[in-house]
Structure formats: structure tokens, C-alpha cells
Amino acid sequence: MWDGDWCTNDCQRDIKVGKIEILLLTPHLDPPCASQERGHDPESMGAAVEDLSAIAPEYENLGRGERSKGRKGQSGFQFIYTTFFPLTCAQDPWNPEPSEKIMAEPRDSSLRIVLVKLETTCIEISKCVLQSCPGPHAIILVLQLGHYTEEKQETAIRIKATFGEAAMKYMVILFTRKDELEDLSLKDFLESSDTNLKSIIKECGDRCLAINNRAGKAEQETQVQELVELVEATVQSNGGVYFIYKDAEQRLESQVELLRRLYTEQERTEVRIVEEDYALEKLSAQEKEEMVQAIREKYDQKIRQEAENSILSQTVEGIKKILLKVWHIFRK
């Protein structure tokens, strides 16, 4: 069983030049209505996705069922998206029916709610962990200007509880709706802001940036460049190393190797059929290369997905173990 620990400075590694991974952490999205088709309701995702679209346009059409998936953003960034659900949610918003495990618990509503929310949070974080293995170069917390609520404060606390104090060295606060500041600068706004907000910004080294959601194309490009520079500065300040998830990468790689051995013969068979068709002149050289490449990519993706699925439950349990130690903070 995974021990639920994260690596810090003692087991970080050098980054690969040309690729920086970012873990996007945002406050909750409103749960979908029962009548909404799961995974196909981008508008109901609310302001969070709208806010993300200003720096990652790919998120404009992001459906609910696609949360926690990696998306290629601008400037070579890999965006990994997750969310923390609110404590007011009485059930898993992605599964209206309580699970059998939850139903078996004492029928005390507050206890049942806490258990469901904890499970949902752990699953969401776990998916993000696996998508961003061996670890992100930056953790971005997206907040709306002027809306630093108690709930969002809990999000920051939960990030620290889950990833440890070391995560704060990798965190960047990204404020959306900069246009609402009008003539006020971000610095002036923060000077008069809530004490808790000031504290969280100080903990992450004053790394913060504001973006305008209604910006035109030129301003969007400028905002992306500002974010790139801020993240690159974060990477440099951390010695150019990942924030590593202890044990998660090792278990994932081991499972990938196991599955690769299992699928080797099946993959070879498909490639051999293509090569035989080429020998019989049924395919051109280019067609053969494209088909062989497609087969290899198919198995690489299949193996990775199956490996992630196989260790997801272990990762969930590890994160749950961490959160259970501090979950009393979030109980009302």
C-alpha cells in the first residue's frame, strides 16, 4: 500500500528542456443538474473554465467528462486541470446516486456528506497526479479577483495538506477578471485585501498575476507571455526541478513495463500484418510507415491509460490517508 508521501528536495530531478508542466488547481465548479448529459455541458462549468480560456483557449469547449485531462496549451505548456468541490455539495456531483460504501455508513447526513466529498476530492487529485507524473513544474491556483472566500481559503489549505509545505515553492496565484480592477493596480488591490489572501500570497513567494478575461487576441498573447515568464522564474528559483510525487511515478512506470510485456506480441502481430500488406504491394511505403506509427501510438496510449487506471485506487487511498488527518478543518 502506498504510504501517501510526496517527494520534496531530496528526490527531485532535472527538467527536460523545452517542456514545462503546470498543474492547474481551481476552486469548485457548480455540480451538474441531473438532466444534463455528463461530459457535454461546457457552459454549466461556470466562470472557472471561462477564466482558464484566457490563458488556455483549449478549455473553452472543455466538457465535464474531460476534467483532469492534459491539454496542450500555448508556448509548449501542458495544462493539467482538476477541481476541489465545495463542502455544501451533498453528494458526488458526477454520480448522483450514493455509492454502496457510503450507504453502509451510519445514516448521519453530515458524516455521509463528508465521506462523499472526501472521496470525490481524492479521486480528482489522484487523476491529476497521474496525469502530471513525475510531477509539475508549477502549481497554479486560479482565483477570481475580489472573491477570496472562506471556501477558497480552504482550497489553499487543502493543497498544502495534500502536497505538503514544499508545494508552496511551486505555487503561482493566477487572478482572473483583471478588467474589474479598472484603474486600480493589482499591487494596490492586494495591499487592501483580506489578511488570509495576503498570507497565502506571501507563502508562495509573492508569485501572482492577473489576467483580463475579455482581452483581445494581442492582449491574450501578452498575458500568456507574462505567465510563461512567471512560471519560468518559478522553475529557475527551484533549481530547474520538478515537484515530485514520491512513489507514484515509480509505480506507474512499473505497471507500464508490465503491460508493455503483455501487449508486445499483440502489437507485433498488427505490425506484421501491415508489413505483409506492404510486401504484397497493397500499401505504399508512406502508408506503411503511417500505419505502423499509428499502431505504436495506439498501444502506448492504451498501456498508459491502463497503467493509470490500475494504480488509481492506490493513489486515492494514499491521498485520503493524508486528508483524513486534516479533514476536521473543513467540517462545519
From TrEMBL:
UniProt feature coiled coil, ranges: 245-305
Give the highest taxon in the source lineage: Eukaryota
UniProt-recorded Gene Ontology molecular function terms:
GTP binding
AIG1-type G domain segment(s):
49-252
The alphabetized UniProt keywords are: Coiled coil, GTP-binding, Nucleotide-binding
What PANTHER family is this protein classified in? GTPASE IMAP FAMILY MEMBER 7, GTPASE, IMAP FAMILY MEMBER-RELATED
Instruction: State the similarity comment.
Output: Belongs to the TRAFAC class TrmE-Era-EngA-EngB-Septin-like GTPase superfamily. AIG1/Toc34/Toc159-like paraseptin GTPase family. IAN subfamily.
The protein in question is named AIG1-type G domain-containing protein
Provide the species name.
Myodes glareolus (Bank vole)
